[in-house]
Design a protein that fits this description.
The complex is a heterodimer.
Chain A (H helix, E strand, L loop, with lengths): L2 H31 L11 H5 L3 E7 L5 E7 L4 E7 L5 E8 L8 E5 L2 E7 L3 E8 L1 E4 L1 H18 L2 H6 L3 H4 L6 H34 L2 E4 L4 H23 L6 H22 L5 H14 L3 H5 L11 H31 L5
Parallel strand pairs in A: 8-9
Antiparallel strand pairs in A: 1-2, 2-3, 3-4, 4-7, 5-6, 6-7
Helix pairs in contact in A: 1-3, 1-6, 3-6, 3-7, 6-11, 7-11, 8-9
Chain B lengths: L1 E12 L2 E12 L3 E5 L6 H9 L6 E6 L2 E2 L8 E4 L11 H11 L5 H10 L14 H13 L5 E5 L7 H16 L3 E5 L3 H7 L2 E6 L2 E7 H6 L2 E6 L16 E7 L2 E6 L3 H10 L3 E7 L2 H9 L10 E2 L1
Parallel strand pairs in B: 3-8, 3-9, 6-7, 7-8
Antiparallel strand pairs in B: 1-2, 1-4, 4-5, 9-10, 11-13, 11-14, 12-13, 12-15
The chains are: A alpha+beta, B alpha/beta.
């Protein structure tokens, strides 16, 4: 571990943990000072008010509150089992219509939605709270990871800014020193993401029971959300490795530029004007140098994040792309830094 | 045994030559003073020697081998400007040195810091004065067990008491076999500590040798002339006199050989109050780098 990078990382982690803890505390204060318990029943108020709807309430032996809303005329029946802090399950039966969604399963953080059909009716079971794939919480960690990656990415540049006599006088090769600093920063990013996941779980746990689970795609999701900040860090490191000052400007400009590229690519796609087609053709290889371009492929909605599908179609190519990109940028950064003069 | 051998060292920045073919052999356990006016190339030489900047030409050997990163375990360097991390405390710098060098002694570092008046280890470097920063850098360097110490103006910004302390540290290190190369603008300090010196000017070594030898061969013959317009032309062809300075009726002849004979000659010409004095290192330095600056009134160059 590199001592300087570790010190910088420790300071960044302390700030991160303070901010995350503050979020948990604010949520706890909010939850306990006003009744913010999650209730799903009001979502079906429209159905319960319809003509012919009958609503019954019952307390089950396990203490859960069961609400049944039935409307024979419409052929709809909703059973809501509200277990309070332990979550809510909704079973809805409705006739098949043209608008009915296809059968399938979608999942999100603290949420699963299973749709089945027997040909005559359509059954949907929604579960809120309880078991949830831990992979989802790493998407929250991605944001913190990107911020930490940005903060730490000036590591070589800050050494160039008057400390090379200290850095390069250590009894290791410059490549070795560079790799140690990079490895330490990567560890810091990982720890920041891990802390975010823990605090995200704690924040959610203020409101509803959460039981983290693991699936076949959890590891890939974690890797993806780690690799994206690491590739971002590597890109900024490469962009600033030869700078003695002015890294703030480069790092600051990187954010808008990284968003403009993919946006311009999609904006010019399918345009018939030759100039825009030329711009598009130019941007196609260029955006692949931008880690954010890979990240746009795993924007999540409950429908798109069905892990098995996502893993095969999106996550694996993104993992490969981000890995290669990170490696390329690390090599460029180290090659630059080892040639620096004090 | 030669601790540090420099041969043909050259550093060009575009069309500017900062170091112009330096050759030096510095014996082990020697205190070596590097003198020169600002911009002479002293700091560049230090950095080239250590490979912190790439030399354009030349060869540097430490203990008979080229300097590799592994050798930095046995070499300590204090640069001219502070390279400490502003955002780190003195304690964290001790931790940094401890994690970087196996020969670093944190207890010794704390003793030296206390000796140099840097008492509060928890202070951030940004809160330290220039002198305290220099003192911290020096203490961290001297707390290592090394064979070669390169100190670029190690007393810069220090108060007289700490300057004396650092000089004593240099002398003590050399007594234990460490080779110390240091630069300073305080020629008195160099004279006190260094056994050998080199004087640099415009990237070149213009004078080098053992301090005692350099001083032994050179004397000043001082006297008072009978009148302000007294002619000294008779000395113009005298090979023993390197330079003549005249300030009103007072004349100083920088003599490289047989000063007593020169004094007798001046006495015969009517000069009074003649005396032969040793050259100080400052005189030797000024004589080497800026003869015209040695006095305000130069009457004749021989």
């Amino acid at each position: 571990m590199d001592y300087i990078a570790a010190l910088r990382g420790r300071k960044a982690l302390v700030v991160t943990v303070i901010v995350l803890a503050a979020i948990v505390v604010v949520n706890a204060i909010f939850h306990f000072s006003m009744d913010s318990t999650f209730h799903i029943a009001p979502s079906f108020a429209d159905l319960s008010r319809m003509k012919g709807s009958v609503t019954t309430h019952e307390v089950l032996p396990n203490g859960a509150k069961e609400t049944i809303i039935a409307n024979k005329a419409l052929g709809r029946r909703v059973v809501i089992v509200d277990r309070g802090y332990r979550g809510t399950t909704v079973h809805e039966t409705s006739p098949i219509t043209k608008k009915s969604q296809k059968a399938g399963t979608a999942s999100g953080p603290l949420f699963t939605d299973r749709k089945t059909t027997d040909g005559k009716s359509y059954k949907e079971t929604m579960r809120f709270g309880g078991a949830s794939d831990i992979g989802f919480f790493w998407y929250a960690a991605l944001v913190v990871g990107l911020i930490l990656a940005t903060v730490l990415s000036g590591t070589f540049s800050s050494e160039n800014d008057g400390h090379l006599e200290m850095s390069f006088m250590r009894p290791q090769s410059r490549e070795h020193l560079a790799i140690r600093a990079i490895a330490t920063d990567i560890l810091t990013i990982f720890l920041a993401e891990l802390a975010t996941v823990i605090f995200a779980l704690a924040t959610v746990a203020v409101y509803i029971e959460v039981r983290p689970t693991f699936s076949g795609s959890t590891l890939a999701t974690i890797l993806l959300n780690l690799l994206a900040p690491i590739a971002w860090y590597a890109m900024l490191l490469a962009a600033t490795a030869s700078l003695r000052g002015g890294r703030g400007l480069v790092i600051g400009l990187a954010w808008p530029l990284a968003f403009i590229g993919p946006a311009a690519l999609s904006g010019t796609a399918g345009n018939v004007l030759p100039i825009w087609r030329a711009v598009h053709a130019f941007l196609v290889p260029l955006v692949r140098l931008d880690p954010l371009w890979f990240m746009q492929h795993f924007s999540i909605t409950p429908k798109t994040v069905t892990f098995g599908v996502t893993l095969g179609n999106v996550v694996q190519p993104a993992l490969a792309g981000l890995s290669m990109l990170a490696l390329l940028y690390f090599v460029i950064a180290v090659l630059q830094w080892r040639r620096m003069e004090a | 045994m030669t601790a540090l051998s420099i041969a043909g060292l050259r550093k060009n920045y575009g069309g500017v030559t900062a170091v112009d073919g330096i050759d030096l052999d510095i014996p082990q356990g020697c205190v070596f003073g590097l003198l020169g006016p600002n911009g002479a190339g002293k700091s560049t030489t230090f950095k080239c020697v250590l490979g912190l900047i790439r030399a354009s030409a030349g060869r540097v050997l430490f203990a008979g081998a080229p300097i590799s990163p592994v050798a930095f375990e046995r070499i300590a360097y204090v640069p001219e400007c502070s390279v400490l991390y502003d955002w780190m405390s003195v304690r964290e710098h001790i931790g940094y040195m401890q994690s970087s060098f196996s020969g670093f002694d944190p207890k010794r570092a704390r003793e030296l810091l206390a000796q140099l008046g840097v008492g509060d280890e928890n202070k951030r470097v940004r809160a330290l004065s220039k002198g305290m920063r220099t003192a911290t850098a020096v203490a961290l360097a001297f707390a290592r067990r090394v064979d070669l110490l390169l100190l670029d103006e190690p007393t810069s910004g220090l108060d007289p008491v700490n300057q004396r302390t650092v000089l004593n540290l240099i002398i003590n290190e050399a007594a234990q076999g460490t080779t110390v190369v240091f630069s300073s603008h305080q020629i008195g300090q160099v004279e006190r500590a260094a056994e050998r010196i080199a004087v640099m000017q415009r990237g070149r070594i213009v004078l080098d040798g053992v301090v005692d030898d350099l001083k032994a061969g050179r004397k000043i013959v001082e006297g008072i002339l009978p009148s302000d317009d007294f002619s000294l032309n008779g000395f113009s062809s005298d090979a023993r006199i390197g330079r003549l300075e005249r300030n009103g009726r007072i004349v100083r002849a920088f003599v490289t050989d047989r000063p007593d004979e020169v004094a007798a000659q001046m006495s015969a010409l009517g000069a009074q109050g003649l005396r032969v004095v040793d050259l100080s290192l400052e005189d030797i330095f000024l004589d080497a780098v800026a003869p015209q600056a040695a006095t305000a009134s130069v009457v004749e160059e021989v």
